[in-house]
Amino acid sequence: MSNRMWGGRFASGPAEIMEEINASIGFDKRLAPQDIRGSLAHVAMLGTSGVLPAADVDAITAGLKSVQAEIEAGTFAFRRELEDIHMNVESRLTEIVGPAAGRLHTARSRNDQVATDMKLWVRDTLDGLDAQAAALQQALAEKALRHAGTVMPGFTHLQSAQPVTFGHHMMAYVEMLGRDRGRFRDARARLNECPLGAAALAGTGFPIDRHATAAALGFDRPTANSLDSVADRDFALEALSAASICAVHLSRFAEELVVWTSAQFGFVRLSDGYTTGSSIMPQKRNPDAAELVRAKAGRIVGALTGLLIVMKGLPLAYSKDMQEDKEGTFDALQALSLCLAAMTGMVRDLEPVAETLAKAAGSGYATATDLADWLVRELNLPFREAHHVTGRLVGAASAKGVGLEALSLEEMQAAEPRITDAVYAVLGVENSVASRISYGGTAPGNVRAQAERWLAQLSGGEG
Ligand code: ARG
């Protein structure tokens, strides 16, 4: 049998493989709510514009609501031979309403329909990701407030560099997530133009009111060029770009959790809820959730790359290639949502191991910069010279296998005779972090102020 939606000029139906490669219903059925919402707005507008009589509008509206109810109840029979969600809905509508259902597709095409559906889905999903990222920021800022003064090593090149606080490290991710959320919101603002009514590619001769459908669907305005309306997938690409950057942030944090929970580091403890045991090694507590968050960046960045390559070189306007936008976009944004939820749970539960962190913070001559700064401040040495003096002292301490604070004053003075015993005050890790009071620095007071600023912003809903 030829396709009953477009089969007029076809004598026979598609080959089995044609049907398989062509069908998208397996994955676009999730657009059913958006599709019906779009159709309800479209038919209402056809009525007010005088394109359809009220009787048809009422019948179609009631029919669409029945279809929606069937889909929600799980009783709707999706059929692959009907290709996609648009034709599945319309076909069932025809069964319910009769021939009047055929008038719904006046002044539109599946091309503007699918663009509208996808935009609605991406828009909702971006809103959800924004809220989830805010919840993660909240968990991080709360943890930071509690550990504003908990010292830990700060790293560059993964070598101990200078002591920082655990709270400061958490707040770094709050900043990253703040930018991620900005990108979600930017993407949302730019996508918020309605393609419906662009029809197949050229617009329509019917006296439709695209401003009315745009407003009914919560868009700021209709799109201004019909070719662009049906050919544009920037909104999915932007959402995937923003999602990719966010996934990369989460992946970096996940990597830190994996390293920090190892027996060799022992910096933090994850809860039982976010670790798994080994079936053979009873001592193990594996950070599987963190590992999977780290890994899922792969499929999210992969979806972005995949869609960029699908779109590259496509001539205007719509091509069936664009049907390939869906699986990757659905999968990637859903994966990011899962990662955000898992990260939030891990952060709420995790506990830093303060003693281990403090010990590690003091090792590796992490306060060498404080010593150099002291020489500059107190003895007025040029920083470069102070750097050399400090280097000699680190060498002396390392030859003895001790920390800088264990060198005697005589040993200090051998490197620079004007050093006094006041120097010991800056060598402790606590002193080091307390001194970093420059704006954005790791001093506990700064960290507390930043955490409080974010928490106020997040609870005010402006975050
Ligand atoms: N399932 C299609 C898609 O996702 C809908 C649009 C089909 N348009 C067409 N002219 N065949 O892109």
From TrEMBL:
Pfam family, one: Lyase_1
Reactions catalysed according to its record: 2-(N(omega)-L-arginino)succinate = fumarate + L-arginine
Major subcellular location class: cytoplasm
Domain Argininosuccinate lyase C-terminal: 365-434
Subcellular localization, as worded in the UniProt entry: Cytoplasm
Name assigned to this protein: Argininosuccinate lyase
GO MF, any single term: lyase activity
Species assigned in the record: Methylobacterium jeotgali
Pathways involved: Amino-acid biosynthesis; L-arginine biosynthesis; L-arginine from L-ornithine and carbamoyl phosphate: step 3/3
NCBIfam families for the chain: argH
Annotated CDD domains: Argininosuccinate_lyase (cd01359)
